[in-house]
Amino acid sequence: MLNKVYLIELRVSILYNKTMKKDKKRGLLIIMSGPSGVGKGTIRREVMKDKSLNLYYSVSMTTRARRPGEVDGEDYYFVSKEEFQRNIDNNNLLEWAEFVGNRYGTPKDKVEKMRDEGKNVMLEIEVNGTTQVLKNCQGRDVISIFIIPPSFEELENRIRHRGTESDEVVKTRLKKAEAEMELKYHYEFIVLNDEISRAAEEVRDIIRSRMNAKIIK
Ligand code: 5GP
Fold this sequence. Notes:
Elements: H1 2-25, E1 29-33, H2 40-47, E2 55-57, E3 60-62, E4 76-78, H3 81-89, E5 93-99, E6 102-107, H4 108-116, E7 120-124, H5 127-136, E8 142-148, H6 152-162, H7 167-181, E9 189-192, H8 196-216
Parallel strand pairs: 1-7, 1-8, 2-7, 3-4, 8-9
Antiparallel strand pairs: 3-6, 5-6
Helix pairs in contact: 2-8, 6-7
This protein binds guanosine-5'-monophosphate.
Guanosine-5'-monophosphate binds near residues 40, 64, 95, 125 and 126.
C-alpha cells in the first residue's frame, strides 16, 4: 500500500518537474505596438543588439508593396493577396489585420518553434493584431508594450520624412494613428520614444525583469 502511494507521488513529482522545466524554458512572447512611424523598427533593432536577451524577431507577412531598401524575408515576407488568403485559410497565422489597404500577419509555426526552443520572440504589430494575440495567449509569458511619440507633430514629421508614401496615404496613416493611440492603455507598458537609445534601454529593462521573474518562479 505504502509502495503504491509512494509510486503515485513519485510520478506526480516527475510530471510536475517536467512541466515546470518546460514552462521555464519556453520563451516569452513580446508584443511591440504603436502607431505607424513611431520608430518601433528602430527600437527593435537597437534592443536586439543585446544578445543576452536571447531574442528572435518574427518576420511578418504582408501584401504591401516593398519600399526601397526593404529586403524580402528580413523586413517582411512580401506575398500576393492570394497567398495571404491561403495562409488565413490554412490557419497558418497567429494573428492578422488589415492596415491602410494592405494585410499583415504573423506566421504561427515559427513563433511556436522558437518559443519552444527557449527564444524570446518579438512581434512588431498594430493594435488589432495585439488584441487577437492577447485573446489567445495570456499570462506572465506575454509582454505587451506600446510605443508613443513625443507629440503628434513629431509623428507626422517622421512619417513625412520617410518619404515613401503618397500624401493621401500619409494622411490616412495619421488618422489611423490617432485611433491607435486611444488603445495604449490596453497594453502592460507604455514607452515614450523621445530618444531611441533611452527608449530601447527601457524596453530591454522590461524584458530583463520578466526573464528574471521567470527564473525565480
Ligand atoms: P508598415 O506598412 O508601416 O510596414 O506597417 C504598417 C503597420 O502594420 C505597422 O503598425 C506595423 O507594425 C504593422 N504590422 C507589421 N506586421 C504586422 C503583423 O504581422 N500583424 C499586424 N497585425 N500588424 C503588423
